[in-house]
Amino acid sequence: MPGKSNGSRLVEVIESGDMPRAGAKVTKPELAAISKWIDEGAKFDGSDPKALLTKLVPGTPVQHQA
User: Fold this and answer.
1) Spatial separation of the C-alpha atoms in residues 65 and 46, rounded to whole Å
2) Cα dihedral value 15, 10, 43, 38, nearest 10
3) Contact call for residues 31 and 11 (beta carbons, < 8 A)
């Protein structure tokens, strides 16, 4: 829920270690940034709301949607 990271399902699954299921775990500073983003309203600030999130990270291979 935007504005409330305490009790957030996203934060909960990251803290439990269930997410992400592949690759590196989320670091404490990354989790703090996610929590802050949620607390500040979880606003989308990208240029294309339909873009794959992987396109927003430089150097990440782009996987095509099915």
Assistant:
1) 19
2) -50
3) yes
The model's confidence at residue 64, banded by pLDDT at 50, 70 and 90, is low
Q: Which candidate, 35, 42, 37, 47, places its Cα nearest to that of 6?
A: 35
Q: Which residues contact 36 (CB under 8 A, 6 or more apart)?
A: 5
Enter the pTM of the model. Answer: 0.68
Contact 11, 38 (CB under 8 A): yes
First to last CA, the chain: 28
What distance in Å separates the CA atoms of residue 61 and residue 66, rounded to the nearest whole number?
Answer: 16
> What's the Cα-to-Cα distance from 27 to each of 31, 46, 53, rounded to whole Å?
6, 23, 19
